[in-house]
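MODEL INPUT / OUTPUT PAIR
PAIR INDEX: 1
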Amino acid sequence: MIRLFQVWRECVSGRTCPAATLALAAVFCSAAAAQTGFPFSSETLNYTVNWPSGLSLGEAHLGATRSAGVKGQGDQWSFELALDASVPGFAVADRYRATASSDLCSLTFDKELAHGARKTHESITFDAHDGVAHRDTVGGGKSDIPISGCAHDALTFLYFSRKELGQGRVPQFEDVIFGAPYQVRLQYKGQEQVRVNNKPADADRVEATFKGPASELTFEMFFARDPARTPLVIRVPLSLGSFSLELAR
């Protein structure tokens, strides 16, 4: 692909090229330019939150924006997940925000949760140089968490996983920061067909296990077999029952 791009650039700049080479280079370069979604471009994805019966509980929005960093730090990614759902007598409104370097090392993570009457808000700043993440809970305390040189918060880890899957790899076992450190393990379970908006779609099924200081959760994620590895369906078991996030086309 790189060589074809070089040939295309040389040809359009005036160099004489064989017609077949020029045509082939144009096809490949057009395909590369047409790639959209993370990590090729900024994106916004919308989801419905459903019970297994198909009853809608609410909606979720997942966004990624690439922008120039400050003070010569290079490009950065900003990620956001907003979730609004409710069952009779209980409402959930969650907001997760993260920033990361262009190579997807976490810089900041902000978590704001409202589960019924209970509300929490905490922010984490990652200091790769000192190997520590500074956690600040609004109305609470402060703590420091040891981290690796390129640590991931939970939201950035989702995007990191997509990039790795797009390159034919499954992320290795690692500690992911979601307030406290969580041991995360991803297992590729093969190709499977899922229904999205009542239409079949081919997907890669990945099982994720999050193990924290006092809890453990295993859930399923289904990624489209496109270059961006777009999340199609995420199925999560909770105490109130299993629910799913399904991409709204």
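PAIR INDEX: 2
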Amino acid sequence: MQYCLVIEKGSLMKTSIKVACVQAVPAFLDLQGSVDKTIKIIAEAAEKGVELIAFPETWIPGYPWFLWLDSPAANMPWVYQYHLNSLELNSEQAKQIADAAKKYNMHVVLGLSERDHGSLYISQWIIDHHGETIAVRRKLKATHVERTLFGEGDGSSLQVYDTALGRIGALCCWEHLQPLNRYAMYSQHEQIHIAAWPSFSLYTDMTAALGAEVNNAASRLYAAEGQCFVLASCAMVSQEMIDILCTDETKKQLLKTGGGASRIYGPDGGDLVKPLAEDEEGLLIADIDLNHIIFAKNAADPVGHYSRPDVFQLVFNTQHKPNVIYSAPTVEPTNIDVTAELEVEGE
């Protein structure tokens, strides 16, 4: 959609941002290799003037495709390797990424398998251009067999954050197919949304639900329904990954190479940049202007003038729920001799 906008001096601030969406093969099951490739891509984007870059779901250390290819028992050696190569956010490897965000003056939204002691979470780490953490959010509910490996987030992970580039939010994969998730995010007046996807390479001959067409439609709908810009970042599967994971002919039929389908959508749901081929690594880069959201919101704001709170309301618990609540020590009552007082009253 093309707009012609004449603005008088001082009437409206132009908020143009150069954004990038990653489409690439991860350094599969290689933590340091993943960190190195992440920093290399951030540096490449910085050379092109990018201010915000979006990475795919579980970019570090790659999506655990083995979960869909074999039984939980057979997958235990893979689970062990996956834990070892997942990213701890207080680690030296995490510091390298944060330092790169600062060095290249870049806002980064990084998809990762977050290792928190004995548990893993499908997470998105939002870092500002000073290398400071804006937020770490966790996928609210892992999808299907992902639940055998990953824990769950809570309502505190469905948040939109004020940044120097605008109000940024993020969701992973099929979180975009949960209508209440979407509405909770829209209600916070999101301007730029990061949609993280793994790769559309699995069960391609069996169901459309896991394919690029259906899931890109979810990202496109999010843009049009929420009237925001959407950076839908998608990874790829390489032949090397197939050789590692697919040890028989049946598995080779289940997982295919390629599967890249990154997109950048405007607030009217339109493509802002020509997509890459599904087997092509690279960056999708677009210049966006947040003021264009005004046109979409004028038509239909689902949390404003186009809503009907007298008919529908969403109950949204945003509180983090810790496993342990530490209470203050109980104060023992002071021993008071009340005998004297009672004798006085009895006189």
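PAIR 2 NOTE: The radius of gyration is 24 Å.
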